Amino acid sequence: MDDSRPAMTHEELLSIATTTVSLQTANRALGIRRSLGYKLAREDRYPCRVIKAGAAYRVPTTDLRRTLGVPELLGQSA
After folding, report:
1. Fewer CB atoms near the end CB (10 Å): N or C, the chain?
2. 3-state class of 18 per DSSP?
3. Nearest alpha carbon to residue 22 among 50, 63, 62
4. How far apart are CA 12 and CA 40, in angstroms?
């Protein structure tokens, strides 16, 4: 991931159609550098819930949006 990319907009966050996102995507949304994001995930200090699946880290999309104060779309089922 290129750490110089701007953080995600609310529209980009709402356009995510998957239930979880990669840690790299969550880092970008939160404006966290890649190395710091992995460090926080390893130390269980990431700003929102992180799921470790084998060697990969996944972040629930709803938790990411909630952490950033981005409301869910109306009529969207949980």
Report:
1. C
2. coil
3. 50
4. 23
